[in-house]
Amino acid sequence: MKTIQERIKSRRQQLKLTLEDVANALGVNKTTVMRYESESIKKLPTDIVPPLAKVLKCTPQYLMGWEELENDSYILTDHEREHLDIYRFLDDKGQHTVDTVAQMEYERVKKDNK
């Protein structure tokens, strides 16, 4: 089972956030976030857990190790969420067009990466 420090670092990396991104969102120094991710802070201040969870797009319970993320592989960035909102707004014809273009691009990239 991962420690809280490992969960913080892992989650930050999954979201492709820098230490500075997290620090700025929390209003703390980058060094403080580094300490949250290391063993140098034995007990994370309880008042930082909820805002940290918000920045890391998870629950405080996940950070504390009391629950797991439902599906790590489907964590959406704000940009992806925006695309999904737009997609859901489209009618059947619009969704079909997006599906077709996305499939064509997927095949192109897959072919180029061989």
Description of the structure:
By secondary structure, this protein is mainly alpha-helical. The chain has helices at 4-14, 19-26, 30-37, 49-55, 60-64, 78-89, 92-112. Helix 2 crosses helix 3 (30-37). It is elongated and about 55 Å long.
Q: What is the structure about, briefly put?
A:
With 114 residues, this protein is mainly α. The protein has 7 helices and no strands.
Helices, strands, pairings?
Layout: H1 4-14, H2 19-26, H3 30-37, H4 49-55, H5 60-64, H6 78-89, H7 92-112
Low-confidence stretches: none
Radius of gyration, CA atoms, in whole angstroms: 18 Å
Shape label = elongated
Fraction of residues in helix: 55-70%
What portion of residues belong to β-strands? under 5%
The span between the termini is: 36 Å
User: In oligomeric terms, what are we looking at?
Assistant: single chain
SSE series: HHHHHHH
Count of DSSP-assigned helices = 7
Main β-sheet: number of strands, strand sense, barrel status?
A: none
How many β-strand stretches? 0
Q: Please, what is the average pLDDT?
A: 89
Summing up helix and strand content along with how strands pair, one would put the structural category as mainly alpha
